[in-house]
Amino acid sequence: MARPKIALIGAGQIGGTLAHLTAIKELGDVVLFDIAEGIPEGKALDIAESGPAEGFDASLKGTQDYADIAGADVCIVTAGVPRKPGMSRDDLLGINLKVMKSVGEGIAKHAPDAFVICITNPLDAMVWALREFSGLPHEKVCGMAGVLDSARFRHFLAEEFKVSMKDVTAFVLGGHGDTMVPLTRYSTVAGIPLPDLVEMGWTTQDKLDAIVQRTRDGGAEIVGLLKTGSAFYAPATSAIEMAEAYLKDQKRLLPCAAYVDNAYGLDGFYVGVPTVIGAGGIERVVEIKMNKDEQAMFNNSVDAVKGLVAACKGIDETLA
Ligand SMILES: NC(=O)c1ccc[n+]([C@@H]2O[C@H](COP(=O)([O-])OP(=O)(O)OC[C@H]3O[C@@H](n4cnc5c(N)ncnc54)[C@H](O)[C@@H]3O)[C@@H](O)[C@H]2O)c1
Ligand SMILES: O=C(O)C[C@H](O)C(=O)O
After folding, report:
1. For the complex shown, is ipTM > 0.90?
2. Does the keyword NAD apply (predicted)?
3. Does the domain made of 146-313 have the CATH classification 3.40.800.20?
């Protein structure tokens, strides 16, 4: 049986890391696409040359031709521009919307059966636009953010509690922006919810609040340190977790930006929610019960994404 084909649209910091992880984990053969001549070819060759020492079987090809992604099983989209210190993700909307148009058309023409994971920011609006431009089924187009934001939350919690991050679970829902919603009641250490851990004296409410805020600012913290771009190791690893869930039909329950219809009070809208990812793509949107405060934070986040989607429609009339 042929190996799965993974097309990576964008061969920058995340694209290159995705290619490396895909090869090391032997998820399939890789096509790295980018408009920058030489970059995808150079990264593909460099990673391929690491194969003998690492011991993986995967072919890697760099290209500027969308025809090379033909028949891809998975497309992961990072094409576009990252933010710099002082910018918000939303400042990228105009420039990256144009990129989503060409990428959506390329995927529609050459890989219409692929499971598509968008990473480009501002995430929730870009995944919506990518789906519109590509015309692919909603369950085959999603965005990566919740896995990353939850991983950051888990890391900070594991440090605070001095326990293995393997035992920490967390859910961050809503849009991937300043309004994201880290849900403390649904985040646990080995099944013990965070509010109980506060009562047990493992931490204080103030410290937990600070960790929640650090999670919300997680992307900006890395941008402030790197200065020339944004995070790429954890984002790539998070997207690979989603791609693997699809390719191996794992039925993982992962938070991601998915098309929500008839749940969470939404009627056909992309935002971060818990989903089940398997061979069918986004097989299920899981509607969890929220209390009044959680619902208010979620609604606030949805409103922020609605504003960005409206801005997209204002820029490109084919989306209106
Ligand atoms: N969703 C998330 O959680 C998350 C996390 C980190 C970064 N991001 C976003 O991911 C995107 C990529 O980040 P990065 O660090 O890899 O950036 P990068 O600048 O290193 O790479 C982007 C690549 O896209 C290419 N590109 C630009 N226009 C293109 C087009 N029309 N077609 C194909 N390729 C094109 C560029 O040549 C470049 O190589 C940014 O928008 C960033 O904000 C999102
Ligand atoms: O913060 C950014 O600009 C990149 C990404 O969205 C992140 O959360 O790391």
Report:
1. yes
2. yes
3. no
